[in-house]
Design a protein that fits this description.
With about 450 residues, the chain is an alpha/beta fold. It is about 40% helix and about 15% strand. The chain contains 13 helices and 17 strands. It has a 7-stranded mixed beta sheet, with helices on both faces. Strands 1-2-3-15 form a 4-stranded mixed beta sheet. α3 packs antiparallel against α10. The model has no long low-confidence stretch (mean pLDDT about 95). It binds 4'-deoxy-4'-aminopyridoxal-5'-phosphate.
Length: about 450
């Protein structure tokens, strides 16, 4: 049973007014103030329980507040909290040894950050340090790499972008989209065309050479797009042939989300630099990069943040990885993903609103369309599904990114009990039926 804190409503209101910016939580009418979490469940300030199919931005792969992680963090807290990066700590060495052990083959060194965005910037800096003559990093259209100045620019064009005076320029290359292949092409031909365009862009599309191609194994915020298998092998080969580094942003796909430890492993594509974040900290802020043996390290002063190697997060990260191995979260993710995907495919047969069902593992999403033939997106349906589901005690992620807004994400912790997963999917089924009954498109 959730115990609720005593709350002064005037303080709550004053705090709300004082905040510079808030994201929207999905329920629509008001924000959801969360006070407690366990596993796949969260509770709000009014004692309402929710099944959390967002894993709080796909970060609680292990389930919220896993006691093994909480205990490790508390133990570290009691000893020492902050250490500036010129000194070392025990969890720094222990986690680094562990990460290198579980990393895709050949990635043998690691560096840390507290946010995915800063870790992506580290990856950019390592790339430029290793290709000093090159002036460009290529990214995919509809990519998402973060919201710092540089990563925002590396992502899908930011509407109205007021930040451009201080942003670097990135060249965005087209990527295949199996649900919407280019006109007259099937997904494989679309992938082959995009590979040709990637090669052309490296050779002829930029001034000053390309240091790296950076991409997510599955485009998470940009529509939950899994590419055809041939794309992954093709990108690796082109990078090899053109002497360009490959950066994989595994901030969403790492640590079991796809039913494998890494997207790199799942798609059999080894990067030169791998960016991780979100789930590694087990709920604590932690991110970083893993780099291949041939990559030259930074020079002194290239990359150092005051809290970049925060011992509490490092200790939590180590406990998270050990617990993930103990519980075999990859198998859990794969099995639950198969179950959820089967149920969603069944819903798709009954609900014309569901245009597409996406996986693998528990990287699950549906795309809502107004019409199956034209595939015209239905952001209104996605918004309403998220809102009504939250009112019924289930939190689903939405994607308002890349001009889409028609994606509902079903990405709970990887160990969600089947009963809760089924309850959440029942609510989704019920809400979609209701919307279709109301004629919403
Ligand atoms: N890359 C990807 C693929 C992400 O999904 C995110 C976060 N959604 C980021 C980078 C940025 O991470 P952070 O929000 O921790 O800065």
């Amino acid at each position: 049973m959730a115990t609720q804190p005593i709350l002064d409503p005037t303080v709550l209101e004053a705090g709300r007014r004082a905040l510079l910016a808030r994201g929207t939580s999905g329920r629509g009418d008001e924000d959801i103030v969360l006070t407690r979490a366990r596993g796949s469940l969260v509770w709000d300030v009014d004692g309402r329980e929710y099944i959390d199919c967002t894993s709080q931005a796909w970060s609680n792969n292990l389930g919220a507040n896993d006691p093994r992680v909480v205990e490790a963090a508390i133990e570290q807290l009691r000893e020492i909290t902050h250490i500036r990066p010129v000194y070392s700590s025990l969890p720094l060495f222990e986690l680094s040894a562990k990460l290198v052990e579980i990393a895709p083959g050949g990635l043998d060194r690691v560096s840390y950050s507290l946010h995915g965005s800063t870790a992506v910037e580290t990856a950019m800096k390592v790339s430029l340090r290793n290709r000093p003559a090159a002036r460009n990093i290529l990214v995919l259209q509809d990519a998402y790499h973060g919201r710092s100045l540089a990563t925002l620019a590396a992502s899908w064009p930011h509407p109205g972008d007021p930040f451009s005076p201080l942003q670097p320029r990135f060249t965005r290359v087209p990527a295949p989209n199996p649900y919407r292949p280019r006109i007259g092409l099937d997904p494989e031909a679309d992938a082959a065309l995009c590979l040709d365009l990637l090669r052309d862009t490296i050779r002829k599309g930029v001034d000053g050479g390309v240091a790296a191609v950076m991409m997510e194994p599955i485009q998470g915020n940009g529509g939950h797009i899994e590419f055809p298998r041939s794309w992954y092998a093709g990108v690796r080969q082109i990078c090899e042939e053109e002497d360009v580094l490959l950066v994989l942003d595994e901030i969403q796909t790492g640590f079991g989300r796809l039913g494998a430890m890494w997207g790199s492993e799942y798609y059999d594509i080894t990067p030169d630099i791998l960016v991780f974040g979100k789930a590694v900290g087990g709920g604590f802020p932690l991110a970083g990069v893993l780099v291949a043996e041939h990559i030259q390290a930074f020079e002194s002063g290239d990359d150092q943040l005051t809290f970049g190697e925060f011992p509490v997060s490092l200790a939590a990260g180590l406990a998270t990885i050990k617990a993930s191995e103990e519980d075999d979260v990859c198998t859990q993710s794969r099995d639950r993903g198969i179950h959820a995907t089967k149920r969603l495919l069944d819903m798709q047969r009954r609900h014309p609103l569901i245009g597409d069902v996406r996986c693998p593992g528990l990287m699950v999403a549906i795309e809502l369309v107004q019409d199956r033939e034209t595939k015209a997106p239905s952001p209104a349906a996605a918004r309403e599904i998220a809102r009504r589901s939250a009112q019924r005690g289930v939190l689903f992620g939405e994607s308002r990114y890349a001009g889409l807004g028609d994606i509902i994400k079903v990405k709970p912790p990887l160990d969600i009990p089947y009963e809760q997963l089924d309850q959440a999917l029942d609510v989704l089924d019920e809400v979609i039926a209701e919307l279709e009954g109301e004629g919403l498109r």
